Amino acid sequence: MSRVVVIGGGLAGSEAAWQAARFGVSVTLYEMRPAVQTEAHRTGFLGELVCSNSLRSALPDTAHGLLKQELTMFGSLIMEAARQNSVPAGSALAVDRALFAKYITEAIESNPQIEVIRQECTELSKLSPIDSDGSPIVYVLATGPLTSQSMSNSLAQILGHDSLFFYDAIAPVIDAETIDYSKVFSASRYGKGGDDYINCPMDKECYLTFYDALVSADKVNVRDFEDNKVFEGCMPIEVMASRGIDTPRFGPMKPVGLIDPETGRSPYAVVQLRTENSEKSAFNMVGFQTRIKYPEQQRIFRMIPGLQNAEFLRFGSVHRNTYINSPAHLTTELAIKGHEHILVAGQITGVEGYLESTAMGLFAGITAARKVRGFSFVTPSETTSIGALITYVTTEKTHGDFQPSNINFSLFPPPEVKTKDKSMRRKLIVQRALAEIDGFIKTAYR
To answer: Do 166 and 235 contact (CB within 8 A), yes or no?
Structure first.
């Protein structure tokens, strides 16, 4: 019996298994947790989030909003779980991470087409395109940015030694009961989303003192066997601060669009807190990913107005983030060149972001199912967000400088109608993408 085997039960792996099962094929999903844990995971749930609980903007005329619309049209399990377990986050889509992961786990484990095996897989070179009964078998490697060292070694044996490594950082989470609400105010930038964020305002003197503490903080040393690279889109706050005294104020600490009701003016700088769960008992420090040592985090972050007595439910931390040089090694099917029975999905392909990883899993799951069923290959147009991501990770010209990317409008071809109006140009891109993805869905599931 033809079969799809998915290795890794994160967002990409869970979505790949879900989509492949929709074709009626048998799916085996391997997940090493909880028997083998990573540096950042805490549970054995499938789809556990380890960085932020935000899935970025939900506004329909943004690139992230478009990606959400496309995934929803496909019947994405991850999008369904997110909608069912969302928490207030202004114009963004954020989730209660525990309920979110539980929802995904229960859906996968109760699907009669999917068998979940809690076991680590390490030997890619031994994966055969023919199953024990002589039927075809296709594999989806979706081990994520926290791919185990043994799997990384196995992958390097197939690809050579041009796999790349960089660091990802996790923001701290604070006990809501320990926030001094007399020194903060609730609001979203420009009033979008009401008062979903808690804002800790800083005047110039406070900011400069805090900045000095950031740049002089005692930091965790990187390990010798890993490259010290940081993805620009998930930069530790202290690295950002080292680039210039005003860099944080033009990044996560920007006060634009916020008015402090106490002063009637925009603060000099602001630290935003976003709810972590539906009970609003915990808050995430937005944009404060860090590799500062734990005692230093407590000392420095308690300098922020409203957080002088903050209790940290989780400190920020740094973990290894692995991705491959996909343009050199992957076909447009996301298959490894020379090993076309192995597809690669998720963040390890060089996309950055929860839903970008989900999109790669979705496409890999559909492609794997079509391959074992003997159907011809189809790919979404690069005018769609999913197609744009696939094009980016498989055809980027500058192999040596390949860097992970979130979905953004620069990945799309310009609209056929020329306009200097940025808002109109984006609307045209969104309209075209939704029309194209609708046609692709009809073809993919035919």
So the answer is: no
